[in-house]
Prior knowledge:
Largest interface: A-B, 29 and 25 residues
Structural class of chain B: alpha/beta
Helix content of chain A: 25-40%
Order of helices and strands of chain B: HHEHEEHHEHEHHEEHHHHEHHHHH
Radius of gyration of chain A: 27 Å
Strand order of the largest sheet of chain A: 1-6-7-2
Oligomer: heterodimer
Low-confidence stretches of chain A: 1-13, 450-461
Number of helices of chain B: 17
Largest sheet of chain A: 4 strands, antiparallel
Shape of chain A: elongated
Structural class of chain A: alpha+beta
Mean pLDDT of chain B: 86
Number of strands of chain B: 8
Radius of gyration of chain B: 22 Å
Strand content of chain B: 5-15%
Shape of chain B: globular
Helix content of chain B: 40-55%
Low-confidence stretches of chain B: none
Largest sheet of chain B: 6 strands, parallel
Amino acid sequence: MTERGFPDVEVQADVARRICGRFVGEDISWLPGISAYGALIRTARLNHLRRAEFFAAYDLRTTRRDELSRVLTFSDKRKDALARALCVNERERDLWDITEWLPFSGNLDWESLPWEPRICPCCTRLGYHTLLFQLPWITRCPWHGANLIRYCRHCARPFSTASSSIPMKCRCGIDYVNVREACRHRQSHLRDMARWVSTYLAWASAAREANYLVHTPKPDVSNWDALGQLIEMPAALQARCGHARAEGTRLHERRLSIYDRVNPNINGLGPKFLLSVPVDIDGVVELPAPTWSAFRHVGYELAEKLPEATFSDGELLRFFAGSRRPALRFAATHRTGNVDILFLPVQVGGERGYLYVNAMAKTARDVVHRLGRYLEKETNNFDLPMRTGMLLLLRAYAEGMRVILSRFFPDLLNMRRDRPHLTLPWVLLQRQAGKTIGVKVVWTPRSDDCQAVLTPPTRNKRRPKSQAPIRPN
Amino acid sequence: MKTTARLALEHPMLHVRRPLADTHAVERVGTAITGYIERNSHGMTLEGNTQRGKTQACVHLDATMAWRTYPLAFCHIRMGEHDRATENYFYTKLLACANLKTSQLSDPNRNLSRVATHLVSAAEAASAEVIVMPIDEAQRLHAKDFEHLHTLDNEVEFAGKRLFVVLIKQIDYVGDEPESIRTEISRHAHARFLEDGITFIPVFGLKELRRYLKEYDEYLIWPIESGITYTRYFAPIAFAEGWRFHHHAEEILALATELMAQHGLNYEAWAWPMKTLETFVYYMLTRVAIKREAEFRRFTRDDILAGLTYCKFVEFEQACPSTLDPRLYVKPQAPENDNADEKAEEISA
Lengths: 473, 349
């Protein structure tokens, strides 16, 4: 007893353990890195519990539509309830937090990634699941070498608890858990497992200090591949659990380093430039003079690829303003300039230049803005993030311009390289001693692409199609 | 100071639950269990009078390893009185005894699977092939309960393990038994679980009493690995001068039988129940020896009489159902290996 006569915490926990019922296989301390979902699968299967009994057994309140693996990864309240029911210690409870497994900081919005329980069939047979399997850069089980799967191998249904009342038992009858084997404590790979998990966690912890992720929260299926490609593990770890790289199609990526040749124009940009790009509203952004040429260059490149007699005189003058290229070699079409096209290039008035940001996708502007916020914290060496911001802006501008122009010039849709398509950028900034030393950017194609932009909304009948606002959002 | 830390600093004899010492009786139970397992038996009965230490013997065997010839897992069950021997009650009772969660939505089949999984899991945790399941108050089992036990046995066997049931029966159990208990147990269940068995005789005769007291003199040590035995801890000066608790064995037994004779109790075929014997030892060490400190040299006749009074030796013997109805009394007989200790001493000498 303590001085005031209250029982100690340890004694209380012991009493609670004795009073509350226990579960068969509730001791998960010997299973390194097991997730909350794994603990649930294991105890539910060993105790022959069904989903309807989870509330009575674990005090786990969920709706029928809830995906348990997702709920048990992101809901602290539910994780706490499960930890209390299984008398899990603090260290094990900490590992139920997915941020412990991430090799980067920055607020990754998991809503933007597709989520389904992902399993190693061999581990699941023993009632084991770890958050490692839910990470995009892990494609194989590090201990069994088996490919991680999301769907039943027999009927291709997802391993979602919503589809079955018994965890990891598919409705088609295939049972992925072997209760008898799950009882066994003598697993030959346990020591290797513990070693690998601790190595991974040590690397992730160190990498979290060094890496910072910037991404758009727009949900998209392809984000999974982008994140998988963005993260590179040490060779020793990667050799065991594979990489998205091995799966075939590679996304477009770009690496920037402090050792690259620095564009002198970038040095003229102030640190607040990226923050000045509007995100939620369409409007204009004032471009510093050193950046005009870069944005104009995007216009030249595209205009040159278009067939003759596409632009009107006024449009050609706007596109090739300030260029040494002979714009007038193109034959102009005889029509009045379109307002949407005329406002695409950089607008110069006096000594100031402006750009209408409706030419850039909102998601890309969002990423640039986030990068700007990161830059606020950066006390020195903001050159590399600034270069990254410019890279993102230029690409977003080029993509947006293609989308808008394709509305007026359908020939663009037939061009293999320049047909309109939108991408989502994912940026990983590498820091060392408080300084950004490298950046890796991966662009992932938006699965909805620009079809939504190209096809005007059918419901809105009040405004004629020709006047519909064109905005690659 | 935290409760756990304080308890760790106190001598185990001062705790409410005091440690158990090895006795011949415990050894006999251990030998019987390993022997019957060796002979492919699935169960045995452990019969005896009340408060003799049958259950504690099983608990002690669970806690010690030296007697085991195979790795064994233990799962203790305490049966309650029940009127209807349903399958669901039986398995739910087993789950409750194992402190496992029970669910109202569960059906008997799932409960059976849960119990079997629990047993297999316990066996795996102990790296054992055999699960010993002592069922306390087994006299309360109905004939139908043996069928459920049979089903469980099959289930465990299918999972690659073996169940060995120790049915701890209190012979002098007096109560209103439900009719189904008195019905005859089926032959196959009888052959499986009730064919083998032993009678539990706690501490019988001088040799066994001397050996029991010797445990406190030589084997029970605290603090761990300090080499200080319990007797030495509570009477250090007398111990240093060569005094030992077991030297009093003859005197204690003589006084106990004398008391029994005085109160008209049968003392000829009598074994000392663990309940009173352990309390007697506790009193002698913690209330007599340590209180006198430097003055203590040996126990006097008055001390022993005070100890016997403290443990309510006579009252307990008088209140025993076996005393009231001699037909219920298990007459202790000299065990087969009665002279084993003597021979061992001779050899060592």
